[in-house]
Amino acid sequence: MSRTDGSGQMIEVIGLDADDTLWHCEDGFERAIDEFVDLLLPNAEGFDRAAVRAALERTERANLPLLGYGVKAFTIAMVEAAVMLAGERLSPLAVEQVVQIGKRLFAEPVILIEGVGDVVPLLAQDYRLVMITKGDLLHQERKIVDSGLAAHFDAIEVISEKDVPTYRRVLRELRIDPSSFVMVGNSVRSDVLPVLALGASAVHIPYEIVWSHEIAMHDGSVPELASIRELPGWLATRRGVGRSAHC
Amino acid sequence: MSRTDGSGQMIEVIGLDADDTLWHCEDGFERAIDEFVDLLLPNAEGFDRAAVRAALERTERANLPLLGYGVKAFTIAMVEAAVMLAGERLSPLAVEQVVQIGKRLFAEPVILIEGVGDVVPLLAQDYRLVMITKGDLLHQERKIVDSGLAAHFDAIEVISEKDVPTYRRVLRELRIDPSSFVMVGNSVRSDVLPVLALGASAVHIPYEIVWSHEIAMHDGSVPELASIRELPGWLATRRGVGRSAHC
Question: What residues does each domain of chain A span?
Answer without folding.
Answer: 13-23+111-246, 26-107
